[in-house]
Amino acid sequence: MRSKVVSRFRCLEPSSMMKMFKEASKRSGLINLSLGEPDVPTDPSIVEALRQAGLEGHTHYAPSSGIPELRGAIRGYWSRTYGLEVPLEQVLVTNGGSQACHLAFQVLLEPGDEVVLLEPYFTFYAQQVCYHGGVAVPVVCREENGFVPRVEDIERVLTPRTKMLVLNSPCNPSGAVFDRATLQGIADLAERHDLIVLSDELYESFVYEGEHVPFATLPGMRRRTLTVGGFSKSFAMCGWRIGYVLGPEEILRPMDLLAIVQTLCVNSLVQRAALYALENGAPFTRRLHDLFRDRVRCASEGLNGLPGLSCGVPKGSFYVFFDVSRTGLSGEDFAWRMLEEAGVVMVPGGAFGTSFPHHVRLAATVPEERLREAFGRMKPVLEGLVRDGAA
Ligand SMILES: Cc1ncc(COP(=O)(O)O)c(C=O)c1O
After folding, report:
1. Does the keyword Lipid biosynthesis apply (predicted)?
2. Which residue, judged by its Cα, is nearest atom 13 of ligand 1?
């Protein structure tokens, strides 16, 4: 029988990250440094808030755009933390930052519209752009520039078909934190070329050096920015599936209408727990921040101490994106060899665009002792590579 699946979805394939997760799930005794989620459980007080919400009868459908109390709390958070003032109508609660990005591309892209993605980028963006008929246009953020893009490199790829640009600072996978001057340069481009900027700020709580500058706080940018935020990382709530987007009503309204027919609303109990988290969870977030700051430092020190590997110290997020070219292996071969021979799972750079085939991402989402154990396991394999003359 001829395939009935829509042609643009016939080519759907799991990313190399998903393949790695799948392979790792079949084996035991591994040290898994591939998962982009805090290993720490959600604070028990947040879990208790969910239980209470259930007992109080918040078990019905919620408004599709989110309960007003939570939308108000999100608005309050961005106002007091960053001075970003948005009215309630410009806050939409979603099933994670992932759904926020998906809806944004769905609402904004006509077939053939171009979307600038800064490489290395979070895997989902390119897939989501493609699913919605857009064309992903990569711009490389060079390692020697701390994985921060150069404004002139972005300008060079802009065409009359460019509709959107995706920012992700702090960045998954590079750990880069974009400085204000660069963001201002991008803002000038956005204004001149009439671009919508999707600014995925899911890691805003995890900045260790420099400051987090929400793109929408730059002069004139609120009307052309969708700010994606979440609870997955800041409150260790990955499995709860809640996030949000702040942006112009003209864009949020159709996103909301699409979300209604997809999911009706975000889980009502989870929304109550998220409200509790925003109102009471700052000390927990602070603890997560300090924990991951120490771990990424430990990880980059450990990696730099291994033969053939090099990296900088990430300024944010909880990833280290390191160069393996001196081992003589591609990132893909390196990651598979470490899985097979050292029992350590990491994600090859190819999962984050095509420009970093000799990089690998490590997620510092295990305790420091475990990181050190992983480096201990990797060392003899790397020494073997050096002996063979590759490194
Ligand atoms: C940059 C980035 N954006 C979005 C997401 C998705 O987050 P959520 O759990 O809120 O859907 C992730 C998850 O790893 C991420 O790293």
Report:
1. no
2. 36
Is 155 part of a structural domain of the chain? yes
Return d(Cα 330, Cα 319) in angstroms, integer.
19
Considering the domain architecture, whether residues 190 and 93 belong to the same structural domain is answered as yes
Residue 51 sits in a domain whose CATH number is: 3.40.640.10
CB atoms within 10 A of CB 387: 10
Distances (CA, A) of 211 to 81, 105, 204, 315, 367: 12, 28, 9, 9, 26
14-38 burial by CB neighbour count: b if 16+ within 10 A, else e? Answer: ebbbeebbeebeeeeebbbbbbbeb
Burial 206-227 (b: 16+ CB within 10 A, else e): bbbebebbbbbbbeebbebbbb
Ligand 1 atom 7 nearest Cα? 97
Q: Residue 260: CB partners within 8 Å, gap ≥ 6?
A: 64
pLDDT 10s digit of each residue in the chain, 391 long? 888 888 777 767 777 777 778 888 888 899 999 989 999 999 999 999 999 999 999 999 999 999 999 999 999 999 999 999 999 999 999 999 999 999 999 999 999 999 999 999 999 999 899 989 999 999 999 999 999 999 999 999 999 999 999 999 999 999 999 999 999 999 999 999 999 999 999 999 999 999 999 999 999 999 999 999 999 999 999 999 999 999 999 999 999 999 999 999 999 999 999 999 999 999 999 999 999 999 999 999 999 999 999 999 999 999 999 999 999 999 999 999 999 999 999 999 999 999 999 999 999 999 999 999 999 999 999 998 877 765 5
Q: What's the CA gap between 344 and 302, in Å, rounded?
A: 14
Q: Which domain holds residue 79?
A: 44-280
Q: Per the domain annotation, does 123 fall within a domain?
A: yes
- Name the domain count of the chain: 2
Of 233, 241, 266, 292, the one to substitute when testing ligand 1's pocket (max ligand atoms within 8 A of C-beta) is 233
Give CA 242 to chain center in angstroms.
Answer: 14
